[in-house]
């Protein structure tokens, strides 16, 4: 990843601030926390100008927003992102019952759950992908969620506790790439691997893809792993509809037959990019990659 495309794989606020968020959603309640977030967002936009500009450019260039609509859309993007973070802390505080979840395409998920083989859940930094691991139950198949390093002990402790209750575990991404062996073993054991497929970390291997009229690079690891083990992939996006309602969109990552291993890796990546584009067009203001995601010449 180039210097222009750096990102931080952690939740802001520090350990004390994050403990405060847990208390905030537990005591005054989630609606009060949302109201506080609405007041904080303008200051965040003012002092995190780089993040603000990336979303503004995204709405202008990828969705054709006017200047004013892109500005207000950037505010809504930051506000929804704040809500998504607060929703996570609400679950940490034991209030997962606050949220109603509708699943579109659940039959694809259930079919693979009932099979003997493991499978891969391919996600992205849109909506609230992480909350799926807290609210959805995969039954007898353990979910192995690949997570990026850098979170505080507060987030790690609460995340691990909730995931353990749902027969899931977090697998941190390591620079020596040893996490791939853990994921590989889990899939061979008939378990589920949940992998964010829109950010390159630690590996230079990627697949060039078209996305929203521009060129991007998606990490090839998950797509190559699916081919080498012969397991299926599901694109899953968890999108916020209202204060307490989420929709989970489940779609198989389609793959034509008769391809070589390398061709299959590229085809899976591009099929996933096509599903990601559909979601981004449907929910343009729930795009949460706050760095230069598209190639610079775009």
Give the averaged pLDDT, no decimals.
83
Count of all domains: 2
Would you list the SSEs in sequence order as H and E? HHHHEHEHEHEHEEEHEEH
Number of strands: 9
* Secondary structure: helix percent: 40-55%
Between the first and last Cα atoms, what is the distance in angstroms? 16 Å
Largest sheet: number of strands, sense, barrel closure: 7 strands, mixed
So what's the oligomer here?
A: single chain
Spatial extent as radius of gyration: 19 Å
Unreliable parts: 1-22
Which strand order spans the largest sheet, edge to edge or round the barrel? 1-9-8-2-5-3-4
Give me the secondary-structure category. Answer: alpha/beta
By DSSP (H or I, 4+ residues per run), the number of helices equals 10
Strand content: 15-25%
Name the overall outline.
globular
């Amino acid at each position: 990843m180039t210097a222009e495309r750096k990102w931080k794989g952690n939740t802001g606020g520090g350990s004390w601030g994050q403990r405060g968020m847990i208390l905030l959603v537990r005591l005054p309640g989630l609606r009060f926390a949302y109201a506080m977030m609405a007041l904080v967002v303008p200051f965040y936009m003012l002092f995190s100008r780089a993040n603000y500009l990336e979303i503004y450019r995204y709405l202008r260039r990828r969705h054709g927003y006017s200047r004013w609509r892109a500005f207000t859309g950037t505010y809504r993007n930051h506000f929804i992102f704040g809500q998504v973070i607060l929703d996570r802390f609400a679950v940490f505080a034991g209030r997962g019952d606050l949220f109603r979840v509708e699943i579109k395409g659940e039959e694809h998920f259930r079919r693979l759950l009932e099979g003997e083989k493991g499978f891969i859940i391919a996600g992205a930094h849109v909506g609230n992908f992480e909350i799926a691991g807290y609210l959805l139950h995969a039954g007898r198949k353990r979910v192995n969620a690949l997570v990026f390093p850098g979170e505080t002990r507060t987030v790690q402790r609460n995340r691990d506790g909730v995931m353990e209750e749902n027969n899931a575990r977090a697998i941190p991404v390591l620079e020596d790439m040893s996490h791939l062996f853990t994921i590989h073993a889990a899939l061979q054991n008939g378990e589920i691997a949940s992998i964010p497929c829109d950010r390159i970390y630690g590996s230079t291997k990627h697949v060039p893809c078209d996305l929203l009229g521009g060129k991007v690079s998606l990490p090839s690891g998950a797509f190559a792993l699916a081919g080498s083990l012969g397991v299926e992939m599901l694109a899953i996006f968890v999108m916020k509809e209202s204060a307490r309602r989420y929709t989970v969109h489940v779609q198989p990552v389609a793959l034509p037959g008769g391809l070589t291993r390398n061709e299959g890796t590229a085809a899976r990546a591009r099929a996933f990019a096509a599903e990601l584009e559909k979601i981004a067009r449907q929910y343009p203001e729930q795009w949460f990659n706050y760095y230069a995601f598209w190639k610079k010449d775009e």
